[in-house]
Design a protein that fits this description.
The chain is α+β, with helices and mostly antiparallel strands. It is about 15% helix and about 40% strand.
């Protein structure tokens, strides 16, 4: 069986891969996806590919040595731990379950009409999702929007995604959490992942004075997520923590990819996702975010683009309906990858596996 194509957070079309080889996948991607995003032939597929189940840029590592973590970052994280009350979850919570609703919409290219998820323009797509997470590295999400279902998960060794038009795709890179879980749903994961962040100063955002922490994927992990046709140049994220409440109120990440087929000029794709996190409520004594809004800007540029810079936008509003800890009956068997992914990472050669992938 040929190796599964890598999971991409760029827009995907059904022509890109169906068990095809990497080279075929990227050729189809180059032929079809540039027009897919910017001519809006398949808005729902683009929305689900980009907004549906993106991964966080970096892994959740064990606590870093004190000399490797700035005192400012430690102060911010300790303030966040106290504000959310998540310390009481340590050693007690084995799994997390959450359900919620989403409303997604494509927005015309900058300079065009300005539709929003509130319905003032483009068509809004409504849906719902369920997330299961087993501490620390196993998770599964099922998202249904506009009649299309996307499923993604991780068994702690490999991440994967399944869509009706792509089937199962394995991922590349190191072990990383689901971005949605870091949007205020799992404060323990937030404190763990940002414990080694770089302090960037202060900034006022959405009317709130915040401390800013930065995390970025290292070069080794970026190389693992790249291949001969697509090079991941950078992937960084900024967390904004309220100076007053101590809570995480905003996330902003961006990644830049260089795509070049043999004999062609390179094209660059930069994707920026910004998420406002709000409506914190107490669940079993812990503050959990129950609502938010994400906006994405995808920019395509390169010397070979006749029309010059191309920019498109999309938005999502999300709410959490229910969240519970320690759901009975949830076991590691619930996170077993699809058969195609299991064949791609055979058990007889576990050292060859990547721990968790894009």
């Amino acid at each position: 069986m040929s190796r599964l194509a890598p999971l991409s957070e760029e827009p995907i079309d059904e022509d890109s891969s169906n068990g095809s080889k990497k080279s075929h996948s990227w050729k189809s991607w180059l032929k079809a996806h540039f027009s897919l995003v910017f001519t809006k032939k398949s808005d729902l597929k683009v929305l689900l590919s980009v907004l549906g189940c993106p991964l966080f840029p970096v892994s959740v590592h064990p606590e870093s040595p004190i000399n490797e973590v700035s005192s400012s970052a430690q102060y911010i994280i300790q303030h966040f731990i106290a504000a959310t009350g998540c310390r009481k979850l340590e050693g007690r919570v084995k799994n997390i379950f959450a359900t919620g609703k989403v409303t997604m919409a494509m927005i015309d290219e900058l300079g065009g009409s300005t539709g929003t998820v509130s319905g003032a323009g483009g068509v809004a797509q409504k849906g719902c999702f369920v997330i299961w997470q087993m501490v620390p590295n196993m998770w599964l999400i099922e998202l249904v929007v506009g009649g299309h279902k996307v499923v993604a998960g991780s068994d702690g060794n490999v991440a994967w995604r399944h869509t009706p038009w792509l089937n199962a795709h394995a991922a590349k890179g190191s072990v990383r959490p689901l971005r949605r879980a870091l949007q205020g749903l799992d404060p323990l994961a937030v404190s763990a992942v940002f414990s080694s962040a770089q302090y960037m100063g202060e900034k006022r955002i959405s009317g709130t004075d915040c401390f800013v922490l930065k995390l970025a994927a290292d070069q080794a992990d970026l190389a693992e997520r790249s291949d001969s046709t697509a090079e991941m140049i950078k992937h960084a994220i900024f967390g904004y923590f309220s100076q007053r409440s101590g809570l995480l109120v905003f996330l902003e990440d961006s990644y830049l990819t260089r795509i070049q087929s043999p004999g062609t000029h390179p094209t660059y794709w930069e994707t920026t996702m910004a998420t406002k996190i709000e409506d914190y409520r107490t669940v079993e004594g812990v503050m959990i975010a129950h609502a938010g809004q994400s906006s994405v800007i995808i920019t395509r540029f390169g010397d070979n683009l006749k029309a010059g810079l191309s920019v498109t936008r999309m938005e999502e509003i999300w709410t959490i309906d229910d969240l519970a800890f320690n759901v009975p009956g949830l076991s590691i068997d619930c996170f077993i990858p699809p058969t195609e992914v299991q064949k791609d990472f055979p058990e007889e050669n576990p050292g060859w596996r990547s721990p968790l992938q894009q």
